[in-house]
Amino acid sequence: MPLLRRRTRFALIAVALAGLGAARPPTLPRQKYTFDATSSEINYKAQTGVFQNIKISQGKVTVFADRAHAIGIGDPNGQWTLIGKVRVHAPPHGNLSSQRAVVQVHNQRVTEVTVTGSPAHFSQQGKAPRQLTEGHADEIVYDVTAGTVDLDRDAWLSDGRNQISSPQIRYNILKDRIEATSGGSGKRVHISIGPRTPSKSKAHAPVSKAHAPAKPSPRPPGKAS
After folding, report:
1. Which of 37, 38, 118, 194 is a plausible cystine mate for 54, CB 3.0–4.6 Å?
2. Does the predicted TM-score (pTM) go above 0.70?
3. Is residue 63 part of a domain?
C-alpha cells in the first residue's frame, strides 16, 4: 500500500473513537497449527498445499475459507492465501470476514494480514453491553510489526455513536492515532460525532433530601384557612 500523503491528523476523533482500539484485527499466537478440510493436496518436497473447505485452528483463533493455498508448510516462514467466504474468529480481539485474505508468516509468527472484498469487514464486541465496533473497506492491511491497520478504498469506522469515512484510513495501534486522507482521489474526509447519552444512573437518580422541596407544615386544629 502506498504511503499516505497529505495526511490529516484528527486528535479529537482519536479520542471520540477510542473504542476502535479494541477492534484490532486478530493476531495468531505462536502455537501449533491444525488443519481440517474436506480435501487436501500436499507436496512435502515443495512445502505447498491446496485445501478445500478448510478450517485452520491455532489456540483460540479459528479461520474458515472455501479454498486455501499454502506456501512453506513445515517452514518457519510462509504464506497462506484464502479464497471464498473467509472468516476469522479471534476472541476477544474480534472478527474479520472477506472474500480473500493473504496471511504472511515469519519465524512462526503472523506478521501481516491482508483481507480484500466488496468490502472486507471486521467487528468487535466491546466490554459495555451493546457496544459494537465495526469497520469496512475494500482492503484492510494489518501490519503486526508496525502496529498499524490500513483501510483502503471506501474506508469506514464506527463505534456505534461516532464514525469516520474516507478513501484511506490508517489506525496506529501503538500511538492510538487515526489518520485519514483522500489519497489523491479528490474525495473529502467525513466525520460524525454523536451526542453522549446520559447514563441511567444519572438520568434517574433520586432527589437528595438536601434539595428536596420542603413539605408544608400541618395546619393547627380548629383554625380555618
Report:
1. 37
2. no
3. yes
